Amino acid sequence: MRYSKKAAVLAAGVASVVMFGSTAAYANHTVVTVGGVGSPAVDVPVTGDNINDSRNAGLGYAANAVSFDTNFGVPMNCTTSDVAGQVHRGASVSVGTPVGEISSLTFSDCTATALGFDVVVTMTAQDIVVRDHPTNAGDPVPVDIQVDANITGTGCDFDASGSVRGEIIPGDSSNDGYIELQPGYDLVIDRAGTTGSSCGGEIWEGDLAQATTGIFALNTSGPNAGVISHG
């Protein structure tokens, strides 16, 4: 039963790749701006903290939790999370192009599976890459956040690698921008315990994982600080 469900998800993923490959690529027509400026190209420091996400209301999580699950419905959530990195001002907003980088991604107060294992989550985040081209200047930008994750705790120990889907939302009067995490089974559990499964048999090597909730409020710093957008 586990194999057939996972195979169906993988087949759907392969189909989407084939469809994407047969679609004409959008030409870039915008660049990343910070404070309304897109040139010259420069990396602008940015930090962010998770904020209230209305999607958590129906999941029984704290309002500001960042949550994940596997393709078999096994949950993990963390009450507190923060990020630090850079925005690539002047980068082309085109599919496959890095528009930012996360150098630090931390999580606190995390539990895994319905059994409530207390775990420590360490994620090494890398590039933030444009996944789909936005229709208009200033629209939210779909992105993939490349990560390697290690989850450790007594009786619950596994690794995952791949990417987390998200959307960069231009800033407003409250914050310079936002990253909203979105579902998409783009993480693969590539190690589970020492025998291929862990966490009371809830996590298995080869399972897939996705983010289900999580919004980060972003703020830039330094001489080039300002609202994040593209135009």
**Secondary structure: helix percent:** under 10%
* Proportion of strand residues: over 45%
Element-level helix/strand string: HEEEEEEEEEEEEEEE
User: What's the tally of helices?
Assistant: 1
- Shape, principal axes of CA atoms: elongated
Radius of gyration: 18 Å
Number of strands: 15
What does it look like?
The chain is mainly beta and 231 residues long. The protein has one domain (31-230). Helices cover 9% and strands 52% of the residues. The strands form three sheets. Strands 2, 3, 4, 5, 6, 7, 8, 9, 10, 13 and 14 form an eleven-stranded antiparallel β-sheet that branches. A hairpin with a 4-residue loop joins strand 11 (197-198) and strand 12 (203-204).
Summarize the structure.
The protein is mainly beta. 9% of the residues lie in helices and 52% in strands. The protein is built from one helix and 15 strands; from the N terminus they run αβββββββββββββββ.
Annotation keywords:
mainly beta, single chain, 52% strand, 11-stranded antiparallel sheet
Secondary-structure blueprint:
Elements: H1 2-21, E1 32-34, E2 42-51, E3 66-70, E4 75-89, E5 98-112, E6 117-130, E7 141-153, E8 156-170, E9 177-182, E10 187-192, E11 197-198, E12 203-204, E13 208-213, E14 215-220, E15 228-230
Antiparallel strand pairs: 1-15, 2-4, 2-14, 3-4, 3-13, 4-5, 5-6, 6-7, 7-8, 8-9, 8-10, 9-14, 10-13, 11-12
